[in-house]
Amino acid sequence: MQTSMSLRLPQELAAKLGELAQAMGRTKSFVAVRALEDFVAREAWQVAEIQQGLREADAGDFATDEDMRALDAKWGPGAR
Predict the structure, then answer these.
(1) Which of 47, 65, 77, 79 sits 20 to 30 Å CA-CA off 38?
(2) What are the φ/ψ torsions at residue 62 (nearest 5 degrees)?
(3) CA separation, residue 72 to residues 10, 58, 77 (Å)
């Protein structure tokens, strides 16, 4: 199922979208949908990772001092 959506684009972005679509031999709509799909997937992944980290922090699930020393020994203190 598809739905339509209207949005306002800055002229420069609309021009770039048009140029890219033409270069790809695709419609502006196709390129915009692909870009939105990529953006939404990336942002959803990041939000899920942050939420998981918050749940772990709330549960007190932190690296121990020993874990951190082992990490420093393996990668160096600047790797954190």
Answers:
(1) 79
(2) -115, 160
(3) 47, 25, 5
Distance (Å, rounded) from C-alpha 15 to C-alpha 28?
10
pLDDT per residue of the chain (80 residues) written in tens, 0 to 9: 999 999 999 999 999 999 999 999 999 999 999 999 999 999 999 999 999 999 999 999 988 899 989 988 998 877 65
Crossing angle of helices 28-58/11-24, nearest 10°? 110
Residue whose pair of structure tokens reads 């196709």 in the numeric block: 30
What's the pTM value of the predicted model, to 2 decimals? 0.70
Give backbone dihedrals phi and psi of 37, rounded to 5 degrees, phi first.
-60, -45
